Amino acid sequence: MVLVLVLSMLAFDVSCTQAFLENGNKIKSKTFLSPEFIMEPGSVESKTYYDIDFPRGHIALKSFNAEVVDQAGNPVPLFETYFHHWLVGKYYEQRPSDRNFTRNSGLCQGQILGQYFGLGSETRKTATDIPDPYGIEIGNPAEIPEGYQEKWYLDVHAIETRGVEDRLGCIECRCDLYNVTNDEDGNPIKPDYKGGLQCCYGETRCKLSRGFQGGKRSIFLRYTVKWIDWDSSVIPVEIFTLDVTDTGKRLHGLTGISPENGCQVEYAVESCTATNAAGNGCVDIKRNNLTMPTGGYVIYAVAHQHVGGIGSTLYGQDGNIICTSKPIYGNGNEAGNEDGYIVGMSTCYPEPGSVKITAGENLTLESNYNSTNNHTGVMGLFYLHIAKQAPNMTFSHPPVQMHESIKGTTYAWSIVVFIGLAVTIAVAVRSWLKKRREGGYNPVPK
């Protein structure tokens, strides 16, 4: 009877866990189409679109996936239209001239890298799913200023490389190929700046091969959002964007990108020949120490790199690895497998409760690039989703800090215990029945 009682209690516990994860809060999904981008050979689209189509209400976002398509809905390969990046963020609007932008939880200055979602060429093969019971809370009426509406923007940066003279040079925004001397704001570009966002802004054009003829075409970002209705069973996550170029300084009154002030967003990789560093295998290693303002459990992590990237790793203060994210390079001609392009990034989904970052912890971010050749305008970003609590955990004592994923899950071990107890009970019952039969007892026939 004791074993039966234990079994009943365990079965009840498992069913409650399943009900918590599958409590009828059905995942909803909807696919949207961005505004139209008119692209022609060598052109650059760099623009922010406001009030884009997006799920509304008090909900928990579960994923955001996107891809570039043409007017017929066909996927567009990166060697034709290269998506340098797309960013999706939130703001509150009373009227078009009165917008209050919100941002993720850090770490950069102002609105720099403040997006909720954002990827680049790796869009098609990078997972963005947020596991149960977690979600990104949006649409909370208590957080929306009175008289305002919550809305979403889309920032896109696309480069049309049909017919260009140097595809790699164009997507790395080399200034000589764009024939510009001033940045988007009209400021002179410094002579030692060889390439990056300052040279490939909207309405610039990358150098075409002589004699190439090509027409305009319409391009769209097709994006699918998944969400559930918000309720008390959902554990909210915070979004952090870390940048390996972050200087750590926050100059008073400056919220944009400027030398020495915060996140620089991009950097250059010099060839190992030029730097006499061939002895290290021609790997450019850039490291930075970053302090987390708050703590919690890591739910999801992924890096963002450009062509030439060979991986990025985030370390805890104890030196243990929080996450290593590596690029997936294509080796074909079809969309999603373009030869030589980064078409995905590996992601980290630590076992819930197994990887904890403490408030004030000093993390080390490392970004590695192949430096056989020069690379301009590269990035070394790292996205983290962090929850204040882990599911089904008691907080009477602080959880032990761990930066290495624990193999096996609490749920899996519950199953193992369940099976073990079931087998034990079956053997015990069989033995008991055998003894009863031997004592003249016969069950009632069916």
Features:
alpha+beta, 5 helices, disordered N terminus, disordered C terminus, Stress_up-reg_Nod19, transmembrane
Describe the structure in your own words.
- Residues 1-19 form the signal peptide.
- With 446 residues, this protein is an alpha+beta fold.
- It is built from five helices and 23 strands.
- It has helices at 2-21, 167-171, 175-178, 272-275, 410-438; strands at residues 28-33, 37-39, 44-49, 59-70, 81-95, 98-101, 117-119, 134-138, 149-160, 217-229, 235-243, 267-269, 283-291, 296-304, 309-315, 321-325, 327-329, 342-345, 347-348, 356-357, 362-370, 375-378, 381-387.
- Strands 1, 2, 4, 8, 10, 11, 14, 19, 20 and 23 form a ten-stranded mixed sheet that branches. Strands 3, 5, 6, 7 and 9 form a five-stranded antiparallel sheet that branches.
- A hairpin with a 5-residue loop joins strand 15 (309-315) and strand 16 (321-325).
- Helix 1 runs antiparallel to helix 5 (410-438).
- The radius of gyration is 26 Å and the shape is globular.
- The relative contact order is 0.17.
- The model is unreliable at 1-22 and 394-446 (pLDDT under 50).
| Parts with pLDDT < 50 across at least 5 consecutive residues | 1-22, 394-446
> How much is the average pLDDT?
85
Question: DSSP strand (E) fraction?
Answer: 25-35%
Element order: H for helix, E for strand: HEEEEEEEEEHHEEEHEEEEEEEEEEEH
- Largest sheet properties: 10 strands, mixed
Radius of gyration: 26 Å
Signal peptide: 1-19
Organism: Salix viminalis (Common osier)
InterPro entries: Stress_up-reg_Nod19 (IPR011692)
Protein name: STRESS UP-REGULATED NOD 19 PROTEIN
